[in-house]
Write a structure and sequence with these properties.
The chain is α/β, with parallel strands linked by helices and 138 residues long. Helices cover 39% and strands 22% of the residues. It contains 6 helices and 7 strands; from the N terminus they run αββαββαβαββαα.
Length: 138
């Protein structure tokens, strides 16, 4: 059985909840990623910050990214997947929550991220198409 651990990108770096959005954006650029998990001072996952969040919730609203914290953009409980959950469970979670990236946790520890492309590569062709369709519809 293929698991989330098998298809994830390991070594995901967090944006601290107290970090500025500007610093998080610079980290995204340096890492070449479009999302960062948000970790609190307790090292627990608080959410996921995306490049879209920065544009829509900070820049478009005229907020200063240097004075807006990442934690201000965290929304409720983070959607995650367990490291040993199956690729089918990854598919189901992405689909049901209409998200394109999932933090992978082992216990409470962040161990990686699964992106839409990772899941699509791990699934059969029909399921990959269903996943993309489910995430693209309103």
């Amino acid at each position: 059985m293929t698991t989330a651990r098998d298809i994830m990108t390991a070594g995901a770096e967090c944006a601290g909840a107290r970090d500025s959005v500007l610093d998080a954006a610079k980290k995204m650029a340096r890492l070449g990623v479009g999302a960062l998990p948000i970790c609190g001072t307790d090292e627990r996952l608080k959410g996921v910050l995306t490049d879209r969040d920065i544009v829509i919730k900070v820049l478009a609203e005229g907020k200063d990214p240097a004075n807006t914290t990442v934690g201000e953009l965290a929304q409720g409980e983070a959607v995650t997947i367990g490291a040993d959950d199956s690729a089918e469970e990854v598919f189901a979670t992405l689909t049901s929550h209409k998200v394109r990236r999932l933090p992978v946790i082992d216990g409470h520890a962040l161990v990686g991220m699964v992106a839409l492309a990772d899941a699509a590569r791990a699934l059969s062709d029909p399921k990959a198409g269903q996943l993309v369709e489910a995430l693209s519809s309103d």
